Amino acid sequence: MKLYVSVDMEGITGLADYTQVDSSKNNYERGRRIMTDEANYVITEAFNQGCQEVLVNDSHSKMNNLMIEYLHPDTSLITGDVKPFSMVQGLDSTYAGAMFIGYHARASMKGVMSHSMFFSVRHMYINDVAIGELGFNAYVAGYHDVPILMVAGDDQAAKEAEELIPNVTTAIVKETITRSAVKSLTPSKAGQLLKEKTALALENKEKVKPLVPPDHPVLRIEFANYGQAEWAALMPGVEIEKDSTIVRYQAKDILEAYRAMLVMTELASRTAYC
Protein backbone atom coordinates (compact mmCIF):
# COMPACT_ATOMS: atom_id res chain seq x y z
CA MET A 1 0.00 0.00 0.00
CA LYS A 2 1.17 3.51 -0.87
CA LEU A 3 0.29 6.23 1.65
CA TYR A 4 0.40 10.00 1.10
CA VAL A 5 0.95 12.32 4.09
CA SER A 6 0.52 16.12 3.96
CA VAL A 7 1.97 17.88 7.00
CA ASP A 8 0.96 21.41 8.00
CA MET A 9 2.16 23.16 11.15
CA GLU A 10 -0.59 25.14 12.91
CA GLY A 11 -2.27 21.93 14.11
CA ILE A 12 0.87 20.37 15.59
CA THR A 13 0.94 19.49 19.29
CA GLY A 14 1.62 22.37 21.66
CA LEU A 15 1.84 25.08 18.99
CA ALA A 16 -0.47 27.94 19.85
CA ASP A 17 0.65 31.13 18.12
CA TYR A 18 2.58 32.58 15.21
CA THR A 19 5.92 32.71 17.06
CA GLN A 20 6.01 28.91 16.83
CA VAL A 21 5.20 28.58 13.11
CA ASP A 22 6.96 31.60 11.56
CA SER A 23 10.56 30.90 10.58
CA SER A 24 11.59 34.45 11.52
CA LYS A 25 10.40 34.14 15.12
CA ASN A 26 12.14 32.87 18.22
CA ASN A 27 10.02 29.76 18.91
CA TYR A 28 10.07 28.37 15.36
CA GLU A 29 12.95 25.91 15.75
CA ARG A 30 11.15 24.24 18.67
CA GLY A 31 8.00 24.12 16.58
CA ARG A 32 9.61 22.50 13.56
CA ARG A 33 11.27 19.84 15.70
CA ILE A 34 7.94 18.92 17.28
CA MET A 35 6.39 18.97 13.78
CA THR A 36 9.06 16.59 12.49
CA ASP A 37 8.64 14.22 15.44
CA GLU A 38 4.87 14.26 14.99
CA ALA A 39 5.12 13.41 11.30
CA ASN A 40 7.56 10.64 12.13
CA TYR A 41 5.16 8.98 14.57
CA VAL A 42 2.63 8.65 11.74
CA ILE A 43 5.16 7.61 9.10
CA THR A 44 6.80 4.97 11.29
CA GLU A 45 3.48 3.47 12.34
CA ALA A 46 2.35 3.36 8.70
CA PHE A 47 5.41 1.28 7.83
CA ASN A 48 4.80 -0.88 10.91
CA GLN A 49 1.27 -1.52 9.64
CA GLY A 50 2.53 -2.80 6.30
CA CYS A 51 2.65 0.26 4.04
CA GLN A 52 5.30 -0.28 1.38
CA GLU A 53 5.72 3.38 0.44
CA VAL A 54 5.07 6.65 2.28
CA LEU A 55 5.37 9.99 0.52
CA VAL A 56 5.41 13.06 2.79
CA ASN A 57 4.70 16.57 1.54
CA ASP A 58 5.82 19.51 3.70
CA SER A 59 2.77 21.77 3.51
CA HIS A 60 3.46 24.79 5.70
CA SER A 61 4.51 28.28 4.59
CA LYS A 62 7.67 27.95 2.44
CA MET A 63 7.27 24.19 2.80
CA ASN A 64 10.81 23.51 3.98
CA ASN A 65 10.12 22.94 7.69
CA LEU A 66 10.43 19.17 8.15
CA MET A 67 13.89 17.97 9.17
CA ILE A 68 14.58 15.12 6.79
CA GLU A 69 17.48 13.78 8.86
CA TYR A 70 15.04 12.72 11.59
CA LEU A 71 12.43 11.01 9.39
CA HIS A 72 12.07 7.26 8.90
CA PRO A 73 14.81 6.26 6.43
CA ASP A 74 12.37 4.76 3.92
CA THR A 75 10.33 7.96 3.66
CA SER A 76 10.28 10.14 0.55
CA LEU A 77 9.89 13.87 1.26
CA ILE A 78 8.67 16.66 -0.99
CA THR A 79 10.05 19.93 0.33
CA GLY A 80 10.38 23.51 -0.86
CA ASP A 81 8.45 26.10 -2.83
CA VAL A 82 7.02 26.70 -5.52
CA LYS A 83 4.81 23.63 -6.07
CA PRO A 84 2.06 23.51 -8.73
CA PHE A 85 -0.25 21.74 -6.26
CA SER A 86 1.10 23.13 -3.00
CA MET A 87 -0.17 21.13 -0.03
CA VAL A 88 -1.10 18.11 -2.19
CA GLN A 89 1.91 18.08 -4.51
CA GLY A 90 2.70 14.56 -5.70
CA LEU A 91 -0.67 13.08 -4.84
CA ASP A 92 -2.14 10.88 -7.57
CA SER A 93 -4.31 7.84 -8.14
CA THR A 94 -1.54 5.38 -7.24
CA TYR A 95 -2.05 6.10 -3.51
CA ALA A 96 -4.48 3.98 -1.51
CA GLY A 97 -5.07 6.71 1.05
CA ALA A 98 -3.92 10.06 2.41
CA MET A 99 -3.47 11.54 5.87
CA PHE A 100 -3.43 15.21 6.85
CA ILE A 101 -1.23 15.97 9.89
CA GLY A 102 -0.95 19.28 11.76
CA TYR A 103 -4.08 20.68 10.13
CA HIS A 104 -6.23 23.56 11.35
CA ALA A 105 -9.73 24.97 10.91
CA ARG A 106 -10.69 27.18 7.98
CA ALA A 107 -10.73 30.97 7.96
CA SER A 108 -13.29 32.84 10.07
CA MET A 109 -13.96 29.77 12.20
CA LYS A 110 -13.03 28.98 15.78
CA GLY A 111 -9.71 27.14 16.02
CA VAL A 112 -6.07 27.71 16.82
CA MET A 113 -4.47 29.89 14.10
CA SER A 114 -7.48 29.24 11.85
CA HIS A 115 -7.05 30.52 8.28
CA SER A 116 -7.30 29.51 4.65
CA MET A 117 -4.00 29.78 2.75
CA PHE A 118 -3.29 33.33 3.90
CA PHE A 119 -4.78 35.60 6.49
CA SER A 120 -6.78 37.93 4.25
CA VAL A 121 -9.13 35.18 3.03
CA ARG A 122 -12.44 35.25 4.89
CA HIS A 123 -14.17 32.36 3.13
CA MET A 124 -13.63 29.98 0.22
CA TYR A 125 -16.33 28.02 -1.56
CA ILE A 126 -16.54 25.26 -4.13
CA ASN A 127 -20.02 25.82 -5.51
CA ASP A 128 -21.99 26.33 -2.29
CA VAL A 129 -19.72 24.31 0.01
CA ALA A 130 -17.56 26.37 2.38
CA ILE A 131 -14.06 24.90 2.52
CA GLY A 132 -10.61 25.65 3.85
CA GLU A 133 -7.27 24.06 3.16
CA LEU A 134 -8.47 20.73 4.54
CA GLY A 135 -11.56 20.61 2.33
CA PHE A 136 -9.83 21.83 -0.82
CA ASN A 137 -7.01 19.32 -0.40
CA ALA A 138 -9.54 16.55 0.24
CA TYR A 139 -11.35 17.44 -2.99
CA VAL A 140 -8.11 17.16 -4.95
CA ALA A 141 -7.50 13.77 -3.35
CA GLY A 142 -11.05 12.80 -4.29
CA TYR A 143 -10.40 13.76 -7.90
CA HIS A 144 -7.67 11.11 -7.86
CA ASP A 145 -10.02 8.64 -6.10
CA VAL A 146 -7.92 8.80 -2.92
CA PRO A 147 -9.73 8.80 0.46
CA ILE A 148 -8.58 10.89 3.43
CA LEU A 149 -8.05 8.25 6.09
CA MET A 150 -6.97 10.47 8.99
CA VAL A 151 -6.81 14.12 9.99
CA ALA A 152 -4.69 15.17 12.98
CA GLY A 153 -4.76 18.62 14.55
CA ASP A 154 -6.84 20.61 17.00
CA ASP A 155 -10.41 19.82 17.97
CA GLN A 156 -11.85 22.27 15.44
CA ALA A 157 -9.91 20.75 12.56
CA ALA A 158 -11.25 17.36 13.61
CA LYS A 159 -14.80 18.72 13.65
CA GLU A 160 -14.38 20.18 10.17
CA ALA A 161 -12.96 16.89 8.87
CA GLU A 162 -15.80 14.83 10.33
CA GLU A 163 -18.41 17.11 8.75
CA LEU A 164 -16.81 16.74 5.31
CA ILE A 165 -15.62 13.12 5.31
CA PRO A 166 -17.81 10.36 6.80
CA ASN A 167 -15.89 7.75 8.82
CA VAL A 168 -12.60 9.65 8.76
CA THR A 169 -10.33 8.95 11.73
CA THR A 170 -9.35 12.07 13.66
CA ALA A 171 -6.53 12.56 16.15
CA ILE A 172 -7.07 15.55 18.45
CA VAL A 173 -3.73 16.62 19.91
CA LYS A 174 -4.95 19.92 21.40
CA GLU A 175 -8.15 21.74 22.27
CA THR A 176 -8.82 25.32 21.26
CA ILE A 177 -9.19 27.93 24.01
CA THR A 178 -8.82 30.94 21.72
CA ARG A 179 -7.23 31.43 18.31
CA SER A 180 -3.84 31.74 20.03
CA ALA A 181 -4.22 29.56 23.12
CA VAL A 182 -4.71 25.82 23.49
CA LYS A 183 -4.92 23.02 25.99
CA SER A 184 -2.46 20.50 24.57
CA LEU A 185 -1.24 16.99 25.05
CA THR A 186 2.48 16.63 25.63
CA PRO A 187 4.45 15.55 22.54
CA SER A 188 5.06 12.07 23.94
CA LYS A 189 1.36 11.57 24.75
CA ALA A 190 0.39 12.94 21.33
CA GLY A 191 2.85 10.54 19.73
CA GLN A 192 1.16 7.60 21.41
CA LEU A 193 -2.23 8.86 20.23
CA LEU A 194 -1.00 9.38 16.66
CA LYS A 195 0.42 5.87 16.45
CA GLU A 196 -2.87 4.40 17.72
CA LYS A 197 -4.96 6.51 15.35
CA THR A 198 -2.73 5.76 12.36
CA ALA A 199 -3.15 2.04 12.96
CA LEU A 200 -6.92 2.48 13.36
CA ALA A 201 -7.20 4.59 10.21
CA LEU A 202 -5.38 1.98 8.14
CA GLU A 203 -7.49 -0.78 9.63
CA ASN A 204 -10.69 1.12 8.72
CA LYS A 205 -9.57 2.35 5.30
CA GLU A 206 -12.31 0.50 3.43
CA LYS A 207 -14.96 2.46 5.36
CA VAL A 208 -13.83 5.83 4.01
CA LYS A 209 -14.84 7.03 0.55
CA PRO A 210 -13.05 9.73 -1.42
CA LEU A 211 -14.53 13.24 -1.21
CA VAL A 212 -15.56 13.50 -4.84
CA PRO A 213 -15.47 17.08 -6.18
CA PRO A 214 -18.19 18.50 -8.43
CA ASP A 215 -17.68 18.61 -12.18
CA HIS A 216 -16.91 22.08 -13.55
CA PRO A 217 -16.78 23.68 -10.08
CA VAL A 218 -17.23 27.37 -9.36
CA LEU A 219 -14.53 28.70 -7.05
CA ARG A 220 -15.46 31.73 -4.93
CA ILE A 221 -13.04 33.47 -2.55
CA GLU A 222 -14.08 36.25 -0.20
CA PHE A 223 -11.23 38.60 0.74
CA ALA A 224 -10.92 40.98 3.66
CA ASN A 225 -10.83 44.12 1.50
CA TYR A 226 -11.59 45.27 -2.01
CA GLY A 227 -7.96 45.84 -2.95
CA GLN A 228 -7.25 42.15 -2.48
CA ALA A 229 -10.22 41.27 -4.68
CA GLU A 230 -8.92 43.67 -7.34
CA TRP A 231 -5.51 42.02 -7.34
CA ALA A 232 -7.05 38.53 -7.55
CA ALA A 233 -9.28 39.63 -10.44
CA LEU A 234 -6.22 40.38 -12.57
CA MET A 235 -6.13 36.66 -13.36
CA PRO A 236 -7.90 35.95 -16.67
CA GLY A 237 -11.38 34.48 -16.23
CA VAL A 238 -11.91 35.94 -12.74
CA GLU A 239 -14.62 38.47 -11.91
CA ILE A 240 -15.56 40.35 -8.75
CA GLU A 241 -19.12 39.80 -7.61
CA LYS A 242 -21.06 43.06 -7.42
CA ASP A 243 -20.96 44.99 -4.14
CA SER A 244 -18.66 42.47 -2.49
CA THR A 245 -15.05 41.42 -2.02
CA ILE A 246 -15.83 37.98 -3.50
CA VAL A 247 -14.03 36.84 -6.64
CA ARG A 248 -15.47 34.09 -8.83
CA TYR A 249 -13.83 31.65 -11.22
CA GLN A 250 -15.48 28.96 -13.34
CA ALA A 251 -13.07 26.02 -13.51
CA LYS A 252 -13.05 23.05 -15.83
CA ASP A 253 -12.23 20.72 -12.92
CA ILE A 254 -11.05 20.81 -9.31
CA LEU A 255 -7.38 20.75 -10.31
CA GLU A 256 -7.82 23.96 -12.30
CA ALA A 257 -9.81 25.46 -9.42
CA TYR A 258 -6.99 24.62 -7.00
CA ARG A 259 -4.33 26.22 -9.14
CA ALA A 260 -6.56 29.24 -9.68
CA MET A 261 -6.89 29.57 -5.90
CA LEU A 262 -3.10 29.53 -5.54
CA VAL A 263 -2.71 32.26 -8.15
CA MET A 264 -5.50 34.45 -6.77
CA THR A 265 -4.32 34.29 -3.17
CA GLU A 266 -0.73 34.97 -4.25
CA LEU A 267 -1.86 38.02 -6.24
CA ALA A 268 -4.04 39.26 -3.38
CA SER A 269 -1.16 39.00 -0.94
CA ARG A 270 0.54 41.85 -2.84
CA THR A 271 -2.03 44.33 -1.56
CA ALA A 272 -0.44 47.07 0.51
CA TYR A 273 -1.97 49.24 3.24
CA CYS A 274 -4.65 46.81 4.34
Structure notes:
The protein is an alpha/beta fold. It folds into two domains: 188 residues, 3-Layer(aba) Sandwich (Rossmann fold), CATH 3.40.50.10780; 52 residues, Dipeptide transport protein (Gyrase A, domain 2). Helices cover 30% and strands 24% of the residues. The strands form two sheets. A seven-stranded mixed β-sheet has the order 3-2-1-4-7-8-9, with helices on both faces. Helix 1 packs parallel to helix 4 and helix 5 packs across helix 6. The chain starts with a strand and ends in a 6-residue tail after the last helix. Keywords: Aminopeptidase, Hydrolase, Metal-binding, Protease, Zinc. This is Aminopeptidase. One of its GO terms (molecular function) is aminopeptidase activity. InterPro entries: DppA_N, Peptidase_M55, Peptidase_M55_sf. Pfam families: Peptidase_M55.
Main beta sheet: 7 strands, mixed
Q: What gross morphology would you assign?
A: globular
State the separation between the terminal residues, measured CA to CA.
47 Å
- Give average pLDDT, whole number: 97
Q: What's the CATH class of the largest domain, please?
A: Alpha Beta
CATH architecture of the largest domain: 3-Layer(aba) Sandwich
- Using the CA coordinates, give the radius of gyration: 18 Å
**What's the number of domains?**
2
The helical percent reads 25-40%
Low-confidence parts lasting 5 or more residues at pLDDT below 50? none
Number of strands: 12
Spatial strand order of the main sheet: 3-2-1-4-7-8-9
Q: Assembly type of the shown chains?
A: single chain
CATH overall fold name of the largest domain: Rossmann fold
Q: Roughly what fraction of the amino acids lie in strands?
A: 15-25%
Structural class determined from secondary elements: alpha/beta
CATH superfamily of the largest domain: Dipeptide transport protein
